[in-house]
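so my prof wants the structure for this chain in the tokens format not the other one, which i didnt know existed until like an hour ago. anyway here's the sequence
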Amino acid sequence: MLLSNTETIPGKEIREFYGLVAGSTVRAKHIGRDFMAGLKNIIGGELTGYSELLQDSRQEAMNRMEEQAKKVGANAIVNIRFSTSSIAQGAAELYCYGTAVKVE
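here's what i got, hopefully its the right format
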């Protein structure tokens, strides 16, 4: 599966258009990560626990989007975007979406 955040894939031509595909995941904060984040807010530095959580969330959302694209027969997804939203206190959704296409 070819993935791109642009409208095309260089060197490829879009032959079929399948429409919007998406994947999402909802994640909650972890008490241990919250404690360490509180300490980092005092002394500064990267919140690595949250960075890892976001990376895992992005990958899970992308995997789900790719599965949806495969089901409709696509071999590429173009114009990929990410969005986040707060679901509840301490929980957020990470949403990934793009356009499923067949390229040659």
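also thought this was worth mentioning. The chain has a mean pLDDT of 88.
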